[in-house]
Specification:
Elements (H helix, E strand, L loop, with lengths): L7 H13 L1 E5 L3 H18 L8 H6 L7 H16 L4 H8 L1 H7 L4 E4 L3 E5 L22 E7 L10 E2 L2 H9 L9 H8 L4 E2 L6 E6 L4 E2 L9 E10 L13 E3 L4 H8 L9
Antiparallel strand pairs: 1-7, 2-9, 2-10, 3-9, 4-7, 4-9, 5-6, 5-8
Helix pairs in contact: 2-4, 2-5
Length: 269
């Protein structure tokens, strides 16, 4: 049986991931999460000419009182550049889900070089991601996403996913939506979508081959979430290449030796 040598713990997590298409767990390094949140809040305050906030979570939740929708994308890009510019950031991010990644993805991993950040102001329609799978637009089916909220994310302040059974039905009918589009697809499957409750202190690890996306944030506070892709280093790549989009993070010694090995000159048979 495939996976028959896995530990009970790996098997249980893997079964949950395969059944639902995602897992939601407490971050494995709370201090690293707090450091990331505090740094993002500092970057935001500095960008807005404000003092660093005492309560980063409340400040981030309330950012719509400081940033207008037409300034949001430039502000968001400045936050992405700022946090990805921190030398410690990617190691810290990985450490939040290290055990879950080893269990669900592998022990020789490639990680996206720049984590994305999505900021959704209450009621703002300008930065939505309609129903999609990443695989439809150049990602390899071997990738999984670690999605990390800096504030509590519930209902439309979060993302939705179509669990595997509903997703299979939608995928089988995809051609029917060639002209009506993904909004029609969303409406037809809306009752089967799940908006995932992921609080600050937790991460979501999801299968980006499943249809997912977001809607207008109808909550009263602003959403802040990172998303970053991981895959087995030697699993197939699609448009997002190793060295450009992905970078090896946990290569093992035997792999290093193998990649560096040259057959001695003059060697025959
Ligand atoms: O955060 C969202 O609402 C969607 C995220 C997404 O599409 C992704 O991370 O692939
Ligand atoms: Fe996506």
């Amino acid at each position: 049986m495939t996976g028959g040598f896995l530990s009970n713990e790996d098997r249980m997590l893997g079964d949950a991931f395969l059944k639902d298409g995602y897992v939601i767990r407490a971050v494995e390094d709370r201090a690293a999460l707090d450091r990331i949140q505090a740094r993002v809040a500092e970057l935001a305050a500095s960008q807005l000419g404000l003092d660093p906030p005492n309560d980063p979570k409340a400040f981030l939740d309330g950012i719509h009182t400081h940033v207008a929708p037409d300034k949001l994308n430039a502000f968001r890009l400045a936050m992405i550049a700022g946090i990805n510019g921190e030398t410690w950031f990617r190691r810290a991010y990985y450490g939040l889900a290290e055990k879950a990644l080893a269990s669900l993805v592998g022990n020789e991993l490639a990680m996206q070089r720049r984590a994305n950040l999505s900021i959704q102001l209450p009621g703002d329609e300008s930065s939505l991601l309609p129903a999609h799978t990443d695989t439809w637009s150049g990602d390899s089916p071997f990738e999984a996403v670690v999605w990390l909220p800096l504030v509590d994310c519930r209902a439309t302040k979060s993302m939705f996913i179509l669990p595997p059974a509903a997703n299979a039905k939608a995928a089988a009918k995809l051609a029917d939506y060639g002209t009506s589009g993904v909004e029609a697809l969303y409406r037809d499957f809306e009752s089967e979508t799940r908006f995932l409750s992921v609080d600050y202190g937790q991460f979501l690890l999801f299968d980006q081959n499943l249809i997912h996306g977001n809607r207008v944030n109808a909550e009263k506070t602003t959403r802040w979430t990172f998303n970053c892709r991981f895959k087995g280093l030697f699993t197939p790549y699609a448009d997002k290449r190793l060295g450009e989009f992905f970078e090896p993070i946990t290569m093992r010694p035997t792999t290093r030796l193998g990649l560096a090995y040259k057959l001695p000159d003059g060697f025959e048979e």
